[in-house]
Amino acid sequence: MTEPPPPQSTEPPLPPPPSTPSTTVIHPRREPFEHGLLPIPKLIFSDPTQTLISFKHKLIELSSNNRVDSVAVSESLQISVEQAKLVVDTIASILPYESESDDTVDVHDLVLFLYIQSYKRLLPRTHKDSAAVADVWPSTSAFDGYLSALSPLQLVRSNSKRFTPSQADEESHQLSYLQKHMANIVSLLAEPVEGESEESLVLTMDRFEHLGLLIQYGDKGSEGSSLSQSSPFFANSDPDMPAVPVPASQVHDWLLENIASALEYIAERTSSKENGPVSASDQDVAMTDASTVSVKVSTSARGASFIEGISKSSYAKHASDIKGSSVKVLNCHESAIYILAPLRYATIYGCSDATIFIGAVGKAVRVEHCERVHVIVAAKRICIANCRECVFFLGVNQQPLIVGDNHKLQVAPFNTFYSQLEEHMNEVGVLPTVNRWDEPIALGIVDPHDSLSHPAGVSDVQTESATRVDPDQFTNFVIPNWLGGESTGSTKDNPFTLPEAYMASQQRNATVTRSTFRRKS
Description:
- By secondary structure, this protein is α/β, with parallel strands linked by helices.
- 30% of the residues lie in helices and 18% in strands.
- The protein is built from 13 helices and 20 strands.
- It has helices at 30-35, 48-62, 70-77, 81-94, 107-115, 130-136, 153-156, 167-189, 205-209, 248-275, 280-285, 421-428, 500-520, and strands spanning 26-28, 67-69, 104-106, 191-192, 201-203, 215-217, 246-247, 296-299, 304-308, 314-318, 326-330, 336-349, 355-368, 374-379, 382-385, 391-396, 401-403, 409-413, 441-442, 466-468.
- Strands 8, 9, 10, 11, 12, 13, 14, 15, 16, 17, 18, 19 and 20 form a 13-stranded mixed beta sheet that branches.
- Helix 3 (70-77) packs across helix 4.
- It starts with 25 loop residues before the first strand and ends with a helix.
């Protein structure tokens, strides 16, 4: 395969509403909704506000400096220590800043995390031509079994972007959720004024800052200024003096006003796109048919690069090509994708019959709705959801998380390198000395965060876990020479130490290769 010259299409940043300064345009932070939802039933409460307020006060009494460890989380939520550790690690992976400790979590971040476990993801959109869909992805397979009705895989496994919600759709959905629940969210962070009634709730600047887990201002994402400095309440506070607390009702009203403005603007922009002339960049976005090959490589306003619709090709991006700190690989088929860059987040969605290599991811990777894909990644953590017949070659510091309806997954140790890999791993905090590739955690087959109805009796069924690749089948993955344009680094070999069985197999294969070469010579 050769590297194609796909059309470059960069979407301009979304301009703010005219009356709103660019630094105060509100957005939901996508990371909690994309990487922070866990299918653990005990994390979802029928009355989350009152339950979590009581839970918060209890944990603060037990905490040191408002931080608790996984043992305290386990005892308070009545979940296993393993699941509590998963909660702590997941929160650390979605924070807009680096966590103070790998072993503890701030109580206020914890209660916000637990509250949003009630969030329901936006469903993929259906296609107007169901016959075209069936031609690409048959609705049944030998793997479906009795759970085939649970996950509409045929709606997302297609070359057509019409199957996945647009970024505007998802942002509107997340903003609408925050709009509906903002009163409860603010109350979880507020505290009463000493000597006054319990209705007199206020937010200190520190408590207000925790809202930055869920919302942000401006288009720089996690790399922008702190939330308090983007608000009218604390923007001019003296750093040497404690800021005056703000009535919670004022914060709530201000947030709702900004969310309403943002939703109105998104609706206006979407309407103008649907009714107005189609621009060159919009033509890349509108993929017209399930059998049409269309490529989009773009950068969003808030720091995500998209690689989309690549088919029967090889494609590569280096660090200098990536604008922002996250990458999404969407609907790529029968291709080889190479991303040689340091990232915070990566998503692989709706791909099939492909090999996808991602260099170093410091926060989280999510692989979803993929089939017969080989994924090679060095990362802090990875979540695999609703995948079939995929193989994962992993260098991961935390246990791989497997959720949803999965079949015939395999895991193996990381098996490649490029010259800047160790530099990129160090930059984003991935440790070469820790690799938990063979310790997957399998959770429920039913995801309580989707919007589907599920048959009774399957909510507690555990998903199928992954098996190890036979060491005799293990081989090194060689990154092609034509990707050596930035070969300035010092990495000469796989930075992760291979387990003994895989090392022995690798050496045997090398010996056989040398012997074969000598005989042919």
